[in-house]
Structures are given as C-alpha cells and as structure tokens.
C-alpha cells in the first residue's frame, strides 16, 4: 500500500476530529466541521480507514425510533491520533516556514 499523502481535505478532517480526539464522529458532522464536501468526505474517511488512521463502526440503533438513518462512527486509532497530530504540526511548520502565515 502506498503511503498516505496528507492532502488539504485530510488535514481538514484531522483538525475537525482533533476537536474531540477520543470521540466518535460521523460523516455529516465531519463534513460540516471540516468544510469538506459531503461527497468527498466518504472517500477521505475510507482512505484513512484503509491506512489504519481511523476505525469505524455502525451504531446499534433502531432508525425508526431514532428518527434518522443509522450512522457509521469514526474514531482515531492510537497510532492514527499520533499521525494526525504530527501531520498537522508538519503542515503548520511548512506553512509558517514558507512565509505564508506572515503574508
């Protein structure tokens, strides 16, 4: 498997998930919080799961009782949390060193 390249969308999802690093997040929430298009968020989450950054599980709820569809929740793995924090720190450093933050 090729290494995961940290794209803008991936970094935005990391930042959204790191607002509650131990929490469970669902796609619509992540799309809203990260400002990544809902059509793109599923591809991003699938890539993160394939690379072991996040795991997912479907909630155990009756959709008719909940009044909404069943949700798939995503959460960081231990190594994934470390990788997300490191990737965001690297991106911040690259952005600052490049002089863009001071423009």
From TrEMBL:
Entry-linked Pfam families: PadR
Keyword tags: DNA-binding
Domain spans labelled Transcription regulator PadR N-terminal: 34-84
GO-annotated molecular function: DNA binding
Region forming the signal peptide: none
InterPro entries per the UniProt record, alphabetical: Tscrpt_reg_PadR_N, WH-like_DNA-bd_sf, WH_DNA-bd_sf
Protein name: DNA-binding transcriptional ArsR family regulator
